[in-house]
Amino acid sequence: MSNDLFPAEVIGTRHVTPLMIRVTLGLDGYVSSGAADEYFKMFFPAEGQREPVLPQVVEGRWVYPEDVAEPVLRTYTVRRFTPATGEMDVDFVVHEGGVAAPWAMQARPGDRVGLSAAHGLHRPPPEAAWQLILGDATALPAIGRIVEELPAGTRAKVYAEVAGPGERQEFDTRGEVEITWLYPGDAALPEIARRHDVRGAYVWAAGEAGAMRAIRKHLRHDRRLPAGSFSTLGYWRPAAEEWQRRFEQVAPGVRARVAVTRERGGDSEQCQDEFDAALEAAGL
């Protein structure tokens, strides 16, 4: 766990599309991880607080002062960061319920949140001839940054799943990018992955966790792509609280299976295989 935590202040907000709000934050000391899909934990104020209380890191754990309401944490993507000004854009999908979307819709200059250090997975190997990028609306901030940071001439095919034509976005890029927008009723992202020729590609996919698990399983076990030639990230789950409740009931067994794999010398991909298999066995 990183010791780096950053207080951040809202500078402004605007709608990118009807269902996507961009919040611009000002912060000091942040250093980019270098990955175009870098993500962080955002600390939102607890109920009754004007700004979140950030923890101290003690022996690798976040420790909060006693008798203080802990902030609410959610994971978000760095849409854009400008080191010269210390300004960061974070995009939020508008939806009912939850903590983050209502906060973003009501955010005003001067509001404060906290950020953890960021990490990312988008690291195409040098030998990749092109990129296949798959994601739903929650992945658009990362997709936008990936596309905009492509080196000149890099080929990429993007499939982006959104609510309708009004949610399409424009991206400036030096790459040779073909974007296909998917709407309700079109082929789902796992189907796109199954029917696509991925020879020579680096595949990056992010979105709903179940869909991402299916894509990863196909790429690793059906296509037998080598580790490092693909990255999948599960950003969200439907009925997440119910899923978490059910997971906590089986978590000790799931973690034990992964621990055995690790003790036998399994690498990170093999441990992920075991984790996914344990979830499927538990009906999750």
TrEMBL record:
<dbReference type="InterPro" id="IPR039261">
    <property type="entry name" value="FNR_nucleotide-bd"/>
</dbReference>
<dbReference type="InterPro" id="IPR007037">
    <property type="entry name" value="SIP_rossman_dom"/>
</dbReference>
<feature type="domain" description="FAD-binding FR-type">
    <location>
        <begin position="3"/>
        <end position="125"/>
    </location>
</feature>
<dbReference type="InterPro" id="IPR017938">
    <property type="entry name" value="Riboflavin_synthase-like_b-brl"/>
</dbReference>
<protein>
    <submittedName>
        <fullName>Siderophore-interacting protein</fullName>
    </submittedName>
</protein>
<dbReference type="InterPro" id="IPR017927">
    <property type="entry name" value="FAD-bd_FR_type"/>
</dbReference>
<dbReference type="InterPro" id="IPR039374">
    <property type="entry name" value="SIP_fam"/>
</dbReference>
<dbReference type="Pfam" id="PF08021">
    <property type="entry name" value="FAD_binding_9"/>
</dbReference>
<dbReference type="InterPro" id="IPR013113">
    <property type="entry name" value="SIP_FAD-bd"/>
</dbReference>
<dbReference type="Pfam" id="PF04954">
    <property type="entry name" value="SIP"/>
</dbReference>
